[in-house]
C-alpha cells in the first residue's frame, strides 16, 4: 500500500528544537519516523514524503527506518 506523507508547515513553535519539523525528535523519535511506523503497522510499504516549503520529494522505505 502506498503512503503519501505531506510534511508541510513552518514548525515555528518547534523551531527551538530543530530546523526541519519532520525531523524534530519527540521522546527520542523524529515526527516523520512516528508517521512511518504507524503507517507500516497499518500495511503501508511504499512511501513518498513531500515538503512544499523545500520543494523536494523524498522516497523512503520502511527497511531504511529503525522500526
Quick rundown:
The protein has 67 residues and is of the alpha+beta class.
Radius of gyration over C-alpha positions, nearest whole angstrom: 12 Å
Query: What is the terminal separation in angstroms?
Result: 17 Å
Mean pLDDT: 76
The helix-strand sequence is: EEEHEE
Q: What does this entry look like structurally?
A:
The protein has 67 residues and is an alpha+beta fold. The chain has one domain. Helix content is 16%, strand content 30%. The protein contains 1 helix and 5 strands. The chain has one helix at residues 31-41; strands at 2-6, 25-26, 29-30, 46-51, 56-60. The strands form 2 sheets. It has a 3-stranded mixed β-sheet with strand order 1-4-5, with helices on one face. The protein has a two-stranded antiparallel sheet with strand order 2-3. Strand 2 and strand 3 form a beta hairpin. The longest helix has 11 residues, at 31-41. It is flat. The model has no long low-confidence stretch (mean pLDDT 76).
What topology emerges from the helices and strands here?
Layout: E1 2-6, E2 25-26, E3 29-30, H1 31-41, E4 46-51, E5 56-60
Parallel strand pairs: 1-4
Antiparallel strand pairs: 2-3, 4-5
Give me some keywords for this one.
single chain, alpha+beta, three-stranded mixed sheet, two-stranded antiparallel sheet, 30% strand
Amino acid at each position: 500500500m502506498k503512503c503519501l506523507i505531506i510534511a508541510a508547515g513552518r514548525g515555528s513553535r518547534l523551531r527551538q528544537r530543530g530546523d526541519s519539523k519532520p525531523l524534530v525528535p519527540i521522546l527520542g523519535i523524529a515526527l516523520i519516523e512516528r508517521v512511518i511506523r504507524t503507517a507500516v503497522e497499518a500495511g503501508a510499504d511504499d512511501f513518498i514524503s513531500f515538503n512544499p516549503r523545500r520543494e523536494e520529494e523524498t522516497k523512503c522505505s520502511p527497511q531504511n527506518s529503525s522500526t
